[in-house]
Design brief:
It is built from 4 helices and 2 strands. The protein has helices at residues 2-5, 10-23, 32-45, 53-64, and strands at 68-70, 83-85. The mean pLDDT is 89. Helix 3 (32-45) packs across helix 4. By secondary structure, it is mainly alpha-helical.
């Protein structure tokens, strides 16, 4: 959802959704446990970082699945249990 929110117009949003469909990418939704983890991290970091609620949920999903998160967003650098990798290009 965060990527869709960053779309500048309906064409970009449609293009992103088409990409997800054609590449067979899986959309991961947070489990109740990951929501609890996101709440804890968000409450602990509120005011100390620019992490949004959506960022906290994304971090909890990735950490809960044992996956690395590829991002330029520095708000994830100190997310507990999350491996963060910077993409090779912007």
């Amino acid at each position: 959802m965060e990527l869709i929110a960053g779309g500048r117009n309906q064409e970009e949003i449609s293009s992103f959704l088409d990409f997800v469909d054609t590449q067979g990418l899986e959309v991961c939704w947070p489990t109740p446990e990951q929501c609890e983890s996101a709440l804890k991290v968000y409450a602990e970091t509120r005011g100390k970082s620019g992490m949004s609620v959506i960022d906290a949920l994304i971090g909890a999903c990735a950490a809960g699945l044992g996956m690395s998160l590829c991002t330029f967003d520095k708000d994830f650098q100190d997310y507990p249990g999350l491996s963060v990798e910077q993409p090779p290009y912007r």
